[in-house]
Amino acid sequence: DQQVKQNSPSLSVQEGRISILNCDYTNSMFDYFLWYKKYPAEGPTFLISISSIKDKNEDGRFTVFLNKSAKHLSLHIVPSQPGDSAVYFCAASAYDSGNTPLVFGKGTRLSVIA
Amino acid sequence: DAGVIQSPRHEVTEMGQEVTLRCKPISGHDYLFWYRQTMMRGLELLIYFNNNVPIDDSGMPEDRFSAKMPNASFSTLKIQPSEPRDSAVYFCASSLGQGGNSNQPQHFGDGTRLSIL
Fold this sequence. Notes:
The complex is a heterodimer.
Chain A lengths: L3 E2 L4 E5 L4 E7 L6 E7 L6 E7 L4 E4 L2 E6 L4 E6 L8 E8 L9 E2 L3 E6 L1
Parallel strand pairs in A: 2-11
Antiparallel strand pairs in A: 1-3, 3-8, 4-5, 4-9, 6-7, 7-8, 9-10, 9-11
Chain B lengths: L4 E3 L2 E4 L5 E6 L6 E8 L3 E9 L2 E4 L8 E7 L2 E6 L8 E8 L11 E2 L3 E5 L1
Parallel strand pairs in B: 2-11
Antiparallel strand pairs in B: 1-3, 3-8, 4-5, 4-9, 5-6, 7-8, 9-10, 9-11
């Protein structure tokens, strides 16, 4: 069973608009959530994270929102730029409660159209 | 600073052959992870090491897969014998700590694209 789910395999957004990537999880022990970005022929790189004690974390154009009751998080990119076109992976860990390794979703391919 | 280095970048071989993938983690990192990425299963953890000791290999799909970390600067993932369904991109990652938070994120290599004919 997948503990971290990214139900949208792909997303297309126009340049300048908002991109919203969604992620759901099933394990209530998860307390730390990370987003990774992956360009073709490269490895994933860390983008932004959020702890379960927060419901929002912002870094420039990137904001992650966490809804613990719904076991749902989302990554907002505003404004979207062509260079944001990549695959985005959601990942979760039970860092404080068990220090488990990351569990990744299958990824969402974002295409930002100029 | 050098990141995680994987070799080879691409490997094409025939079914039944032995395949060895190599990884050099970032110096000072105490955790090393091997992942496999496929369209069907996404990014799945195969095995990870802490201070060169295997901690959890429950993600290794079959006995045909084995991994070693003889020292802090080198790890191998071996498939013997290889099968077409092993075709995937294999990533190595390292971190200081388990990489489960923003202070200690996992750093990934650029992967090895493996094709078994």
